[in-house]
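Could you please review the protein record set out just below?
***
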Amino acid sequence: MNKKELAEEIAGRMSTTVTETLRFLDTMIDVIGESVSQKDSVLLQNFGHFMPWEQNERAGRNPKTGVSCMIRKRMSIKFKPGKGLLLKMNAKKNREE
């Protein structure tokens, strides 16, 4: 499912327009991104936890040339799924079996 398909699904369930839903999704992504970039974590109960994560400098290599190089340290993000999301995923899997 891509962003547009997600917006269409949400819009159908909430009786809103796809345009309004896309605007909401964009705003939500911006707010989460800004919070995590300021090294704050974002917890959405029953969905998951977005956490900033600082990757250390490490050795790497250029896959095209094979030349070794150092990859600078940088900020990244980790996502840990919430209990509610995991239960929904596993409940669906168990029904299929």
